[in-house]
Design brief:
Blueprint lengths: L4 E3 L4 H9 L4 E3 L13 H17 L5 E11 L2 E3 L5 H11 L3 E12 L5 E12 L4 H9 L20 E5 L2 H5 L3 H10 L6
Parallel strand pairs: 1-2, 1-3
Antiparallel strand pairs: 3-4, 3-5, 5-6, 6-7
Helix pairs in contact: 3-4
Length: 190
């Protein structure tokens, strides 16, 4: 029997990717706090993704999908900006530099079933950005709810010079990794 997929995230970008792939799913937002996780960035992303999936799996049947995206440059993790000034600071730090985007991906069968957890790494090179470009972009409001203060799938695409790796990872859900692992849980993607 095919399992029901439950997305443990409020991210409209992750939901849009699942819809694009034709995967039926429900949303059950996890209440896991995204703070106080230590270690290398890939382990932080994995731990948070797994914590989100496990939190929902405690009371839901089906296959729970948890994900967490982390942006890092020069050893600093850039989460979601606190406000516009923080978004400006982050974008100034990213300007003209390569940074890492890591998304942890976790699949957990509800109520104590099998678990899978891994991550995808993508390198993103930003264009050198003028202060005026950064201020215009921040004024759109787009960067305020995104790790690293930009959305590659929106207006933030104009800030990026090059990516090496999975584009969808930068959006927030690494498609290749997801499809491979869903197959292990009996869910085939058309």
């Amino acid at each position: 029997m095919k399992q029901k997929l439950i997305l443990a995230s409020a991210s409209p970008r992750r939901a849009a990717i699942l819809k694009q792939l034709g995967i039926p799913f429900e949303v059950q937002v996890s209440q896991v706090q995204e703070e106080n996780v230590q270690g290398p960035i890939h382990l932080q992303a994995e731990q948070l993704a797994l914590a989100k999936a496990r939190a929902v799996a405690q009371f839901r049947e089906g296959l729970i999908l948890g994900a967490d995206t982390v942006v890092a440059v020069e050893g600093e993790i850039l989460g979601k900006p606190e406000d516009e000034a923080d978004a400006v600071r982050m974008l100034q730090k990213l300007s003209g530099k390569e940074h890492q985007v890591v998304t942890g991906l976790a699949l957990v069968e509800g109520k104590g079933g099998r678990e899978f957890c891994s991550h995808e790494l993508t390198f993103v090179q930003m264009r050198p950005l003028s202060r005026e470009e950064i201020l215009r972009y921040v004024a759109t409001g787009e960067p305020l709810d995104k790790a690293g203060a930009y959305g590659i799938q929106g207006l933030g695409a104009a800030l990026v010079r090059e990516i090496r790796g999975c584009y969808y990872n930068v959006v927030g859900l690494p498609v290749g990794l997801l499809v491979d692992q869903l197959a292990n849980f009996g869910i085939a993607v058309p």
